[in-house]
Amino acid sequence: QVQLVESGGGLVQTGGSLRLSCTASGNTWSIVYLAWYRQVPDKQREKIAGITHSDRTDYADSVEGRFTISTDTAKHTVYLQMNSLKPEDTAVYYCVAVLMKGSEYWGPGTQVTVSS
Predict the structure, then answer these.
(1) Is residue 93 within 8 Å of residue 37, measured between CB atoms?
(2) What is the CA radius of gyration of the chain?
(3) pLDDT by residue for the chain (116 residues), tens digit each?
(4) Is the distance from CB of 5 to CB of 109 less than 8 angstroms?
(5) How many CB atoms lie within 10 A of CB 74?
(6) Where are the beta strands (DSSP E) in the chain?
(7) 115, 88 contact by CB (below 8 A)
C-alpha cells in the first residue's frame, strides 16, 4: 500500500502561482506512475498531469505550458508547479500513485481557489 498527502493549496489571484506537493509513504518502491487530477463540484475528475518513473511527462491541453509536474525521488514527493492561474483552475487537486500491479492510490485532496 501507499499513502499520499497533498499540500500547498490555497487562495491565489488570477495570474498567480502555486506549487502543490504530494508526499508518498509506504511501498514507494512500487510506484511506476504519479499523476495529478482535479475535480470541480458536479463535474468529472480531470487528469491534468502525469509523470513516469523515467520522468516522462504528459499534460492535459487545459494546463499545457502553464503547469509543470516533477518529482524528488529522495523525498518521495511529486510536485505540481502551477503558473498563470485562471479562475477555471479552481478545484480540489488530487495526487494519484499507480503501482506496478496496476493498483491506484489517491490522496485526500487539496483545495485551490483562483480569484478573478
Answers:
(1) yes
(2) 13
(3) 999 999 999 999 999 999 999 999 999 999 999 999 999 989 999 999 999 989 999 999 999 999 999 999 888 999 999 999 999 999 999 999 999 989 999 999 999 999 99
(4) no
(5) 6
(6) 2-7, 10-13, 18-26, 31-39, 46-52, 57-59, 67-72, 77-82, 91-99, 104-106, 110-115
(7) no
